[in-house]
Amino acid sequence: MADSDIETSSNHNSHHTTASTTSVHVSALDGIINANSLFTVAVFVGITFDQPRDLNLADRTECNAGRDVERDLVVFEVISFAFFLFSSLVAQGLKLTINLLNSKETDEVFKANINSDLLRLGVVGAAGGSILGCVFLLLSMVEVIQLRLGLLSCGNSLAIHTVLALVVLVSSALSVYIFTVFYSFRK
Fold first, then answer.
1. How far apart, in whole angstroms, are the C-alpha atoms of residue 89 and residue 126?
2. CA angle 9, 11, 17 (to 5 degrees)
3. Predicted TM-score (pTM) of this structure
4. Chain segment 47-97, per-residue pLDDT in tens
5. How confident is the model at residue 7 (pLDDT cuts 50, 70, 90)?
6. C-alpha–C-alpha distance, residues 183 and 54, integer Å
């Protein structure tokens, strides 16, 4: 970021955040980083210890998931991992910028005056990475369900109900998250 994009003077206009709103942004960025850390660890553990052929509860052998489902699972997990990592790094970079611009005193972490348009862009980028990470994590969980309970195309009611519950709950939570991110920028 150029020095002209970020101001640390005491002049406040509509394009610069105040000390009180900067502390809210730092807290929001901390939340994004913490949530993404948990998701990133979960995805990494899933990739590391995934052995799909060990357990399959499908009643009919033609309902067993094939190599294409296994391949999709790995692809979705890696993409999810990448989005969570992207989001965490963007949020951490914004937080670092805020802290470095505050002052020479390291205990005054909530006083930076930052261009609000750049801050919004960074927060939306971090939130977008988290959202896309959740979408790909959801897709990978659907593949895990198919590997363990059988293909959805076979009409296995347990697999279908499990996927429906997962999609409804995750979609609802993502909808609330998306709404709150955009609502926060209207205030």
1. 8
2. 85
3. 0.73
4. 656 665 555 656 677 778 888 998 999 899 889 989 988 998 888 888 887
5. very low
6. 45
